[in-house]
Design goal:
Blueprint lengths: L22 E5 L2 E6 L9 E5 L8 H14 L2 E5 L11 H9 L7 H21 L2 H17 L7 E6 L1 H9 L17 E5 L8 H4 L5 E8 L5 H18 L7 E9 L2 H4 L5 H25 L2
Parallel strand pairs: 3-4, 3-5, 5-6, 6-7, 7-8
Antiparallel strand pairs: 1-2, 2-4
Amino acid sequence: MATPGLQQLPATGSLHSGTPTGRTAKVHGLDCYIADAPNRSPKGIVVIVPASFGWKMPNNRVLADCYAKQGNFQVFLPDFMDGVVVPEDVQSSFKVVKKTSIWTNPLLKLGHLFYVLRYMLPFVYYCRPAVVAPRICGFLKALKKDEAKELPVGAAGFAWGGYFVIRACWDQETNRTDDGKRALDYGFVAHPSSSKYPQDIDKIELPISWAAAETCRHMSPEQARQTEQILKAKTAKGKDDGIEHEFVMYNGVNYGFAQGSDRKKLPEAEAGKKAEKQAVDWFSRCFAKSRP
């Protein structure tokens, strides 16, 4: 039985283990986890748009800490979902629902299905693009007028969140402040869900770095090749103007590896750390270009 939005669940695990060291505060009307730059003089600001498990998930907060420490960025992890998140254990129930073994108790599967639907249906409704996209755009615009008035802004999106970062990289009025400035300067996405190929990629104007999983239910091998080709063509066309893009395929890993890989799965854990470095290196290079 398929339900819209169920396939947006990423893997869970302990890629980013440890205790979050940042702080929480209300930022432009949203609850937010903040990881400050180590020397209090950030190179730029990074906004994380996470997967469906939300801003309170320890993995996401430790990832924000890693970005801040490794890149000397100020990192914001807002509650763009307005409190409507999917509990981590829903992933375990989803795996039971997908089992096709004749030995799986049908009543057990039904119970897990109801548990999944209990959280996924509200999430799909309350966190639909028509509701969330304006919330994200509004936050980015507010940052650009305040904290990022003199700093470049990057956004990192994962799974569910990746789609919104792609949208933020389009050239449209909703992505600009009242005085015409771009609210976002650079993007990074890892295994985004819900994107339409190739039209969503064709619309990308801002520099973007893409981390793709070889096995991804949201991006077929053909769509991956197509996306890479489009971004390469855009780079060739815009390089003289400083517009570059990159696409990195991580072989042997599954959708969700960049934000929730299990350390027991060595290839995924290694790829997850490489994707983390990819994002930090990308924003560091891009922010350096933006300095006066």
